[in-house]
Amino acid sequence: MLSATAIQESDDERVFETSLSWQRAGASRALDFELEYHHTPAWSWQLGLSSERVGGDEPRRERGIELEIQHGLIDPDRAGIGLGLSATCSAQRQSGADQRMWQRAWTLAVPVSARVAQGWVHVNIGVENISGDGSRPWLAVATQQRVSRSVDLLAEVAAVQRREHLAHAGMRWWLRRDKHAIDITVGRRGGEDGSSTLLTLGWSLMDLSF
Fold it and tell me: What is the pTM of this model?
């Protein structure tokens, strides 16, 4: 979710989180793997691997790798409003291409979280600067509400400078609460190339200490 960008989420340190997600958007399919390490509550590192089959008139396959460093400057849980900074370096290669496309980006985010009923509402506003593409503001609002011992409801809407927008909702099924979960969401995603129906299936392991 966009609202997870550069947020200091907890007091965890020296713990791992890992997730695997499959996404279908129109004729495109994507598979993403992420491994995140929280060194301290304020610092974390994230490695992402992706493979996407882009459909349409000229189908192609894209593979990518991304390394992100996140730093929480102000903790929203303590101050009510947070401040986070992240830096990303990524490389992507299309099928048939001889060279990788390298890209650098940084993101400044201001998250606000509030407890509502049996869950949370997260509001995140920020600006992203991508090498060669300039800066663009974005906004995301997400909620997670507990409805039973093992099920939460999820919803999110997000927009990036009128170029991209996202709205999806679904459920998180906790196989072990706060440790092991499966997510299912459906919605719509749009951009400069049009909009499409979105289906996402995700699997996460959290708070892994070694």
Answer: 0.86
